[in-house]
Amino acid sequence: MKIGFIGLGQMGSAIAANLLAAGHELSVWNRSPEKAQPLVDTGARLAASPADAAQGEVVMTLLADDAALEAVVYGANGILGSPALHVSHSTISIALAERLTADQSDGFVSAPVFGRPAAAQGAKLFVAAAGDGKALDLCEPLFAAIGQRTFRIGDHPPAANLVKLSGNFMIMAAVEAMAEAMTLAEKGGVPPAVLLEVLTGTLFDAPVYHSYGAILLEQKFRPAGFAAPLGLKDMGLADAAATTFKVPMPILGIVRDHLRAVIAQEGDDIDWAATALAVRRAAGLG
Ligand code: NAP
């Protein structure tokens, strides 16, 4: 299929490489063009602008936040009005997803992804996709090339973003719970590795506890797989949705503040799982 890919950050570069490997004809665009070079070296075409990347059947976007996606859609040489079906993988606000749905009434799919950069490289993402059924059918082979499973959330694109924001909130809540339990164990004289072995081997045998448990045990927060400022962005988007739908979410307030604390203390280049440091430090551990 002739497709465009816009946004070649940690996630986008890996996903675009898998689309290329699957045999698709790929045009790529990134704000900082040097990040496109490895893909161009392996057969992609460097597009001159976002609109230029959107002349095929599908254009996929994977950008940092609302402002970045707005620039690429509505800015100079943006993709609005282009012939390609826009498939948005970014984690964005419900409000922007609603706006994009209204402004691209001839076709828009929202398909945020679950999985960190390693999962993106291994084509092991989970795709949560919502949009018109025929558009989702068209995207099936593309999603199959980048992920291990696609979930269809319905025909209203913002529904997929609500699933994504809810999922990221639950990851942060799981990290918070693990960090508190591991800190309790450590101060009480039980090695956190032993605690994790018992819990992930019994009631908590889920990917989120295994993958983030390992990160917390090693305290391997750099290089960031998912940078804390992007995590804070997502908690802010979940909070806005909670206000819209009038849902008190007290745990969300805790993890959001722990993200603020760890960014203030450690800088922007730390992984979002480093909220565990805020928990440890509050308990007097280094
Ligand atoms: P990243 O490495 O920081 O990449 C961000 C991308 O957005 C880059 O291509 C960047 O371009 C572009 N960008 C930022 N501001 C822009 C602007 N104003 N105009 C145009 N382009 C702009 O981030 P990432 O980790 O790949 O994450 C990308 C998206 O995926 C985010 O929405 C994130 O929440 C979501 N996500 C991330 C993960 C993860 O584990 N990392 C997992 C699932 C979903 P430059 O190269 O020019 O800076």
UniProtKB/TrEMBL annotation:
<dbReference type="InterPro" id="IPR008927">
    <property type="entry name" value="6-PGluconate_DH-like_C_sf"/>
</dbReference>
<dbReference type="InterPro" id="IPR051265">
    <property type="entry name" value="HIBADH-related_NP60_sf"/>
</dbReference>
<dbReference type="InterPro" id="IPR036291">
    <property type="entry name" value="NAD(P)-bd_dom_sf"/>
</dbReference>
<dbReference type="GO" id="GO:0016491">
    <property type="term" value="F:oxidoreductase activity"/>
</dbReference>
<feature type="domain" description="6-phosphogluconate dehydrogenase NADP-binding">
    <location>
        <begin position="2"/>
        <end position="154"/>
    </location>
</feature>
<dbReference type="GO" id="GO:0051287">
    <property type="term" value="F:NAD binding"/>
</dbReference>
<protein>
    <submittedName>
        <fullName>NAD(P)-dependent oxidoreductase</fullName>
    </submittedName>
</protein>
<dbReference type="Pfam" id="PF03446">
    <property type="entry name" value="NAD_binding_2"/>
</dbReference>
<dbReference type="InterPro" id="IPR015815">
    <property type="entry name" value="HIBADH-related"/>
</dbReference>
<feature type="active site">
    <location>
        <position position="164"/>
    </location>
</feature>
<dbReference type="Pfam" id="PF14833">
    <property type="entry name" value="NAD_binding_11"/>
</dbReference>
<dbReference type="InterPro" id="IPR029154">
    <property type="entry name" value="HIBADH-like_NADP-bd"/>
</dbReference>
<dbReference type="GO" id="GO:0050661">
    <property type="term" value="F:NADP binding"/>
</dbReference>
<feature type="domain" description="3-hydroxyisobutyrate dehydrogenase-like NAD-binding">
    <location>
        <begin position="159"/>
        <end position="275"/>
    </location>
</feature>
<keyword id="KW-0560">Oxidoreductase</keyword>
<dbReference type="InterPro" id="IPR013328">
    <property type="entry name" value="6PGD_dom2"/>
</dbReference>
<dbReference type="InterPro" id="IPR006115">
    <property type="entry name" value="6PGDH_NADP-bd"/>
</dbReference>
<keyword id="KW-0520">NAD</keyword>
